[in-house]
Structure formats: structure tokens, C-alpha cells
């Protein structure tokens, strides 16, 4: 017969298994310079990095959160925007992805036009339509209220998001709003949406929490980075 010690120890392992949180892989893609690294810093560490360099390969950052009593972890894959720094890594980016954040710069219409190429890359890597997609216009702090040229209008971005089944946000990694609200576009009559980064985290978390996968017991996590041209620069296994 099992001793009370053995019984409580096996209960302990069951409970530790149950309390391990589910980890979701969230891919962050978009043209070089749109602010993917700064935004993932903001989403995960709550700050704007003092100094950033072009991402080489991919960097990993985690964000733990609790949604309706369940602890989950988002693992953000901040991928290189420059083709030469992506190279052979691309297929690894798309493996077992649970959600994708498409980032563009609201002051750079070319980065918005470039989204079609990122959608095509998702298609080529067999990313299913069931994978939640989020469209995020970054650098809203640079919007010039006196002009509409050289900026991506929100109506255009919202239509694009709707056409591609994405949830739309506009924010600034540098100077995010503390509360969700509307920014004025100069004359007071026109307004644009500015989202708190925490609203983005919550929306991604809440969407993923409803999903059945991955199981709490077998969700391996990476931290650190993979660099193109080097062997695995750093590969660590972590747990909540
Ligand atoms: N004003 C402003 N500048 C930003 C914001 N986000 C990023 N930047 C600046 O934009 C530049 C590029 O930012 P990154 O985060 O390195 O861009 P990236 O998309 O990761 O670039 P790659 O690594 O080349 O793909 C840096 O100079 C940042 O300081 C923002 O919200 N507002």
C-alpha cells in the first residue's frame, strides 16, 4: 500500500504539472525598422529600449499574464525584418506558431504596403487561417496632426485588417497611452485610435487562452536568441 508520504509526493507532482502554465508562441513580423524589437520590449518588459540594433535571426522574449484565473505565457519571437538576416531561419519561425503580430510603421506607408509580402510568407509556410492574426500600427507618437500624407490612415488599416481577418491596434512602443483612448488628429473633428500596449497583450492572451493547445505539460520554451550564420547562439529551456 502506498505510504502517506508517497501519496502526498505524487499529489505534489500532479499539482505541479497542473499549475505549469501554457506557453504560446507568438511570431512578430514586419519590415525592418518598423519597431518590432522596441514593441516586444515594451510588451514584455514594459519599457522602451535605450539602444537597438537590427535583429539578426530571432530574439525571444516572454510575457506572463493571467486571464480569468489561468496563468499563461506568451513567447514573442522578434524576427529580423531584413531578408539577409532571416535567410534559412524562416521555416523555423513558422513551426508551431499560435499567433502572429504583423507590425507596420504608421509614418511609413511602404511598411504598410509591405504587409502583403508578409502575408504571402505566412501562406508559403502553411500558416493556417485559424491562427489568430493581429495588425499593429506602431510609432503613433510620430503622427503629425497637420498632415495626412506620408502616414497610414486608420480607415485604411482597419479595412485591411478586416479583409485579412486580423484584429487591429495602433500604438507607440516609445510613448504608449496609459489608458485606451482616442487621439486627436489636429482639428479636433478627426480622431484616431491609440491603444495601450497592455490592451494588446490582453487581447492576444485572451484569444489564445480559448484555444485547446498547447497542453500545459509539454510546452517547451526557448529563451535568448538564434543568430543567422552561427550555431544555436543560445538555447535554454525554461518553465513558468
Ligand atoms: N518614435 C518612435 N520610434 C520608434 C518606435 N518604435 C521603434 N522606434 C525606433 O525605430 C527604430 C527601429 O526600431 P527596431 O525595434 O529596431 O525595429 P525592427 O522592426 O525590430 O527592425 P529590424 O530588427 O531591422 O527588423 C529605432 O530607432 C527605434 O528607436 C516608436 O514607437 N516611436
UniProtKB/TrEMBL annotation:
<dbReference type="InterPro" id="IPR027417">
    <property type="entry name" value="P-loop_NTPase"/>
</dbReference>
<protein>
    <submittedName>
        <fullName>Ras-related protein Rab-33B</fullName>
    </submittedName>
</protein>
<dbReference type="Pfam" id="PF00071">
    <property type="entry name" value="Ras"/>
</dbReference>
<keyword id="KW-0342">GTP-binding</keyword>
<keyword id="KW-0636">Prenylation</keyword>
<dbReference type="GO" id="GO:0003924">
    <property type="term" value="F:GTPase activity"/>
</dbReference>
<keyword id="KW-0547">Nucleotide-binding</keyword>
<dbReference type="InterPro" id="IPR005225">
    <property type="entry name" value="Small_GTP-bd"/>
</dbReference>
<keyword id="KW-0449">Lipoprotein</keyword>
<dbReference type="GO" id="GO:0032482">
    <property type="term" value="P:Rab protein signal transduction"/>
</dbReference>
<keyword id="KW-0472">Membrane</keyword>
<dbReference type="GO" id="GO:0012505">
    <property type="term" value="C:endomembrane system"/>
</dbReference>
<dbReference type="GO" id="GO:0005525">
    <property type="term" value="F:GTP binding"/>
</dbReference>
<comment type="similarity">
    <text>Belongs to the small GTPase superfamily. Rab family.</text>
</comment>
<dbReference type="InterPro" id="IPR001806">
    <property type="entry name" value="Small_GTPase"/>
</dbReference>
<dbReference type="InterPro" id="IPR041822">
    <property type="entry name" value="Rab33A/B"/>
</dbReference>
